[in-house]
Queue: 2 jobs
Job 1
Amino acid sequence: MAKIYFFLLACILGSVAGIGKYSREESPEKRWADYFMRRPASKIADKLEYIREKSPFAPPKNDINADICFTEECLDASIALLQSINFSVNPCENFFEFSCGKWLADNPLPPSSSRWSHFDVLVQEVNEVTQGILTTPEKPEDFKPVKQVKELYTQCIDLAAIESEGLALVIGILTIDGGWPAITPNWTPAGFDLLTVVAQA
Ligand SMILES: *[C@@H]1O[C@H](CO)[C@@H](O)[C@H](O)[C@H]1NC(C)=O
């Protein structure tokens, strides 16, 4: 396992150091979609099979007794490493290219980013999981804060309601007592007191 963690660390550091080395030949969106499509199915047996197929290292003689982690998380980490390594490079000649070459080739800089690394991929995954939670309909067993956050999120993305409501509510708040310079027609400073307006809003 120590070896695997070393590779992971090298790859994370390498991908941070390797910002800007990305190939832009293929459409980044396509390569990004391909990257997710290539991820193997979520069953442990499938993952193990995939690792055995891709890994150039000989499998341990007896998996059951070997001191090796076979949880799904460990297998996912192994797969991520296998998908990052460029095995056609000799690690003694170019360790960076060996440990991270394939990751760099498979993860071009998305058009919306000026940098891209393992950390950005993780952030994207966390955002997707969070969005999945927020868009799951409210369940009776949800905790109250979860219900509230789901409701707030649903309201935030309800563009139809936002459009139909318009700015009436905000303008109502801003025009209390003296109005607001930028939005009140024929506004005059007389009688306007910023503190009063802010306090009442
Ligand atoms: C792996 O390294 C070889 C030799 O440097 C290079 O020709 C090849 O394009 C690399 N493959 C990937 C996927 O980066």
Job 2
Amino acid sequence: MRTNILLVCYPTLLCILIVVFQHVYDNVIKHAKKCDPKTNFNCPTPEIPVTPPLLQVPRSPYRAVRTDFFLFNDLPDESCRRNGSCPATILLTGKNHSLGEILAGTMITSSLNTSQIMASYNDLGSVAANVLGSSSMPPQYLIPLKFLDDIIYLVQRQCTNNFLTNVVDPEVDPRECVKGLVLWRNDSTLVNDELYKGYYKGNLHGKINEIIAAYDFLNSNKNNFNVSIWYNSTYGQTGDNVLLRIPRSVNLIMKKYEPG
Ligand SMILES: *[C@@H]1O[C@H](CO)[C@@H](O)[C@H](O)[C@H]1NC(C)=O
Ligand SMILES: *[C@@H]1O[C@H](CO)[C@@H](O)[C@H](O)[C@H]1NC(C)=O
Ligand SMILES: *[C@@H]1O[C@H](CO)[C@@H](O)[C@H](O)[C@H]1NC(C)=O
Ligand SMILES: *[C@@H]1O[C@H](CO)[C@@H](O)[C@H](O)[C@H]1NC(C)=O
Ligand SMILES: *[C@@H]1O[C@H](CO)[C@@H](O)[C@H](O)[C@H]1NC(C)=O
Ligand SMILES: *[C@@H]1O[C@H](CO)[C@@H](O)[C@H](O)[C@H]1NC(C)=O
């Protein structure tokens, strides 16, 4: 009698075990497969995503504009903040103004180079063909560009309304054109002063005037490349080993340094 009960129970037990196992599998294993690197730092990375280096570009309402306490009238009028059309500024200084003018003219492209778009960022050689940027805090781990929450800007000398017609993959391509303004300052103390006053607490009016980056070409000439770069280190103060968007601002001039 006992053996009979066991014989009947055995398949039932097996069935229950299978159901339990299936349930565990569904919840744990399958779930792990849907790991989203955007929300979970510990997702396995099947391959290192190729992401183009981005410039740290200020958000439109904070980009530097003319104010009473700024001596410089080459900055845009404050009215651009109303419709989000403010350009983003890069400051240059150095001993040789004409060299600065040459470099200023080559830092930012004047039209979208679609070969980079076509290459879907897999061709690292073409990454520098366009100047791309973002306002968000840089991600601290490698994630594909399409997972970045922020808008990718295309920084250009002029923005046209139809630049988006060249866009191939709206998920990864730049979505907003930002005019890049490259301005010369006569010496580094002026740049320091302008950067300092651009901070909310750097002036008495609580105004914010952010700059992409500033470059001092020092005593550079065609045989000697000696440059120092100012960048905003605010995000770096949030902890140790914080990744900042500096490489692109360095590369912006390194690649173009072919004077003479
Ligand atoms: C924004 O406003 C400025 C002047 O206030 C104007 O020149 C410009 O064309 C406007 N831009 C857009 C995109 O509406
Ligand atoms: C400044 O740079 C330009 C361009 O490289 C060069 O032709 C000129 O000789 C330089 N001037 C001085 C004073 O070094
Ligand atoms: C576009 O970028 C590619 C790759 O860097 C380069 O070979 C090509 O000359 C660029 N085209 C223009 C018009 O700048
Ligand atoms: C910068 O220096 C040049 C030449 O020394 C001078 O003509 C110009 O007025 C100066 N600009 C400012 C804003 O001081
Ligand atoms: C530096 O970056 C921080 C964070 O984005 C921002 O709040 C601040 O205004 C920036 N300062 C300047 C001068 O760009
Ligand atoms: C680079 O510039 C700095 C600051 O002006 C100077 O001390 C240094 O000697 C320069 N280096 C070279 C190689 O010219």
